[in-house]
Structure formats: C-alpha cells, structure tokens
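Weekly sync notes, structure subgroup
Attendees: PM, AL, DS (notes)

Item 1: joint prediction request from the bench team. They want all two components modeled as one assembly rather than separately. Inputs as received:
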Amino acid sequence: MAVPGVNVTGLTKEERLIIMQEDSVGLVETRYFHFAQSPKELVLESGQKIGPITIAYETYGQLNKEKSNAILIEHALSGDAHAAGFHKGAKEPGWWDSMIGPGKAFDTTKYFVICSNIIGGCRGSTGPSSINPKTDKPYALDFPILTISDMVKAQKYLIDYLGIEKLLSVVGGSMGGQQVLEWVALYPEKLASAIPIATTLKHSPQQIAFNEVGRQAVMADSAWQGGNYYGYGQPKSGLAVARMIGHITYMSDQSMEEKFSRKLKEKKENFKFTTDFEVEGYLKYRGDNFVRRFDANSYLYITKAMDYFDLSGGKFIPSGKSIDTKFLVISFKSDWLYPSYQSQDIVRQLKMKRIDATYCEIKSTYGHDAFLLEVKEETHLLKHFLKKVSSNI
Amino acid sequence: MKSECLKLDHRVICDIIEFGSSVLDLGSGDGELLSLLSEKRSVKGQGIEIKEEAIYKCVERGLSVFHSDIDTGLSEYPDKSFDYVILNQSLQEAKNVIFVIDEALRVGKKVIVGFPNFAYVRARTRLFFKGKTPVTKSLPYRWYNTPNLHFLSISDFIDFCRDKNIKIIKALYLSKDKVIKFLPNLFALNAVFVIEKAD
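Output from the run, pasted for the record:
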C-alpha cells in the first residue's frame, strides 16, 4: 500500500515487500509537533512550567471528513510513538503492529490511528535528555517532575492541533491505561469511548515498590552521577537491573515455566557466577537491549509519574457529572502486577455512575505481558466494541 | 422468521418489558435475550455473565456486559437503577439465592425470574417410577454435570415470595410451546414471574 511522503523508487527490495504486506500500514515516519513556546509554557501539576515542548507522533489511516474516526493509542512505560508499520531500514515493526493495520483490531481502512510519545520520555518527545533552552545542556534532573495528568494535558495540544474535536476512542494498556483513565477524568466530553487495559485507578504499594527498586538500581550505579551522565554514557548496569526486575513482573510463574523451565544455556552447570540458566540469559538480553534505547533519567521520571497516579476517591468521575463515554475494560487472569481486582475497581466506579460499559477478564497465562500478546481475544473484543461505538455516532 | 424460532421464555419476557426500559440481565449468557430486547423493545441493556466465551458473543452482538458472577455483582448499583432486573434461568445457579433476589429487588424496580419447574409431571414420574433424578426438557442435565445448585418448583417459589414478603405481579407458566394455565405446577416446564418489593 502506498504511503504518502515515501518515495517508493528509492527503496530496497525488502522495504518494497513490507509495503506490499496487506495487513501492514507499511512504511511510516515519526512526526514532531512543537508547542508551549515562551511565554506560553505548559504549567504542570507541580506548579512548575515547561516549554518549549516537542511531541513525537505517528498516524496511520485517514481522518474522515467528519473527523469522527480518530483513535488515540497510549503507550506503556517503555513504548514510543512508533506503534505500527516499519521505519525505513528497520526489520522490526512498531510495538503494537499486531493490532494496528488494515483488517486488524484498529482497522486503518476505517480508523485514523494516532500514537504519540509521552513527555518525559526519550523517544522524540521532550524529556530529561532534551536540551534545556536556558542552559543549552540536557535538562537531566532540572527537568520538572511530571504526572500522568501532565502527559495527557500535553497530548491534548496535539489532538487539538490535528483538529479533532472528539476522539472515537482512547486506548492503552498498563501506564497507557492510566493515561486513558486520565483522559476520562480531564476531558470526558472529548471521548466517544475509552478502553483501559490491564491498568489501575491508583498505583498500589506493590507497584510503587517495584518501581522504587528500579529507580534505586539506576541511582546506585556510579555512572548515574546525580543524573548528569550525558556525554559520559548511561548508567548501564543500573538501568539494566531495573529493566530485568520489570520483566519479571511482566511475566507469570506459569509463563516463565513454559518459556524457560530450568533449561540451561549450555548442557551443564558452570559452577561459576555466569549465565547458566536460560531465564538469566533472557533477562540479561532484555536489560542490555533496553539500555541501548532508553534514557535512565526518563525511566526515573516516568516510573515516578506512574506512582503518583491516583484517581481514586471520586477523582475519576466527579459526583454529579454525567458522561456518555462508553467503556471497554480488559484485564488478564495471570496478571499479578496489575491484577484484575484493579480493573474491577474501575468497573465498580462505572457501575455506580450507570455508565455503559463492558468488562472482560481474559484467561491468559502470560501475566502483565498479555496485553501485548493476547492478540486474538483483544482483537475480537476491540473490533466489535469499536464497531458499536462508531455506529452510535 | 427469526422471531418464530425464539425460545418461548424469551418471547414471554419480551412481551412483559415496556419499550425503552432499562434492563439488567443477570446471567446473560451469550446475549440472546438482551439482544432480542434491544431489537424489539429498544431497551438500555446491561448484562452480567461469568463465562468468558459468552462475553465474546455478547460483545459481538454489540451488547454491554460485565464479566462477573451474579452473587457479587450488584452492590455498587444505587437503588432502583433499572426498570427491570432479569434472572432468567440463572437463579438456580446462584450460590446465595436470598441475597441475589434481595439485591435484584433493590436495584430493579421490578424483577423477572424465569426457572425450570422441578415438579413437572415427567420429572415426578421419572423420580417416582424409575427412582432416578429427573431429566426433562427444561432440566436437561444429568446429576453429575448440572450447573444447577437449587431445584425448585412453581409452588416452592410462590411460597418463597409469600415468606419473604415479595409481591408477585405476574406469573406465566410455559409448556414446550405455549403459555398454560391448567395445573401449572404439574404441567409447566418453565415459569416466568414478575416480582417487586411489597410496600
């Protein structure tokens, strides 16, 4: 399928094959939206100001004439704006490519799909590794502490810039789900529907604890240098440990047994502190991989924002406020990081307000990772739900 | 064509419910009844269902449904949230019948209860002459695979409502293919009651 703005003649054979794939959005490019120039800086929840701000984003499919078919995808902790298709020269597609494309759950022949990188991130949007215009050096810890609400408020500027009055849906898993809930709390009138997946109205002490261990691992690495490591190299080992802990919490006892069991990398034990078990090798691989693409300070800022997240106690949908946003809430049975009871808490709030909603706990053994892996079940739910929501507009 | 094939209890319930009502279907299964009510009565419907496969069917039909058992599903709803709460062929599977009925009567202005009649003539003869657990058209399971936790007759339910001070507004008794009036506790396979809280 042809992609506007991409010169097909200059492509390699491999890239042409990607474009030919029927269910892929093909070659895509990240775009950048700039706003909050001085003196119109964004005022954050902490009271601090930040500007100018850049937001990296991608879009797939076409916005219809009525501008009523836009779906906003919210990424999780380590995600980015590149949700689907292929960047030029890349072998791996975007992080939710299994769900976005012609005929997929987010069918790009019907819907206009938007995904943007959160502020505080390190994948093209303004974050602690960006240059501070006041010092011409990276912000590092001079970057203000952010909240999920700040991320959503910044993202709203992008949606306004794209000329979209009302989103057909806003959807995301994990921290992406927190952003979905924040959108509901801040701009319910802008949403025809909302799809929070494997998420929570408030971070639990267990979730905060895991994040704190990750942050401590980063900050305990001498290479971190109080956050001023730019130009010297990342605190690699600390960030890798943080990521390894993360990956353990994303799996389940059963999925780890199925994936690794006690399998050894070589045929026998080495009787040394080397990587004997496959599970060790996997975590090491994940950690090393992460260090190459993710900024350690961004990791600190984003996990802190997740921990501050709390829409409990009537902050989600204030009393007296009636909203017509339709909900699809999804959780996964083996997810012990964002257990089903947290999604059921969301459902309870919706019931109290008599809001039209569907909730499904998908039987999965993948743990928290399930939201990226249970493609068939999610596709079935999302496809029919979105069809219903679009027909009601 | 489609409506002719519909289950009799679904048709009877559809006739009871007024156009545009709000309905909570407890144990909505694959959404057949709710879907009929949306189509024929334009109800604002919400289902509660425990089976995951059934949730997918409901969503496919464009229905809103919560994945939950019916024993714990209602506490968040304010009083009189729905015009009707339906417990069709699901009450006999509830763990705590009294609690479920009380909650249904609290959140619904009226409650529709449909259940298989255990005192149906063929159930009685099978038990009396063969000495075996009844298997009938409305109780099709064997003793080892039935989802039913409670077995009740029409007379049992009427007694229950009297004891619990629940008002019966309407009672419909169903044979295989029609509504009957003669000796229902003997000849009805299924019963559909409309009940409400007595003042």
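Discussion: Residues 119 and 154 of chain A are 7 Å apart (CA to CA).
Action: AL to compare against the crosslinking data before next sync.
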